[in-house]
Amino acid sequence: MLDFLLIIVFCVLGVLVGIVTGLLPGLHVNNVALIMLSASNAIVAVCSPLFAYGISEEFILILIAGFMISVSISHSFHDTIPTTFI
User: What is the DSSP string of 59-78?
Assistant: First the structure.
């Protein structure tokens, strides 16, 4: 059950970040991807208390991948708003 909850939380956070990157013309989803790639070890270290609940390091990397997929999908939808009005 915790696995499903973590997937939902990371995807919702990804949608929120995708909304921000879609609405700000200077910020692109590739910038967020580079930041997430370079900080992936730090993210795994921050999520290390989840190891006590049976969450593996590989699953945390899968959560990061799900986060990035939801960022890119949300960015592609919300990118049309500044394109239309700017």
Answer: HHHHHHHHHHHHHHHHHHHH
The residue extents of the domains of the chain are 8-85
The answer to whether 11 and 72 have CB atoms below 8 angstroms apart is: no
Q: What number of other Cβ atoms are within 10 A of residue 49's Cβ? A: 8
- This model's pTM is above 0.85: yes
> Over the stretch 43-56, which tens digit does the pLDDT of each residue have?
999 999 999 999 99
Q: In a 10 Å sphere around its CB, with 0-12 CB exposed, 13-18 middle and 19+ buried, how is residue 40 labelled?
A: middle
Quick check: 47 and 57 in contact, CB under 8 A?
no
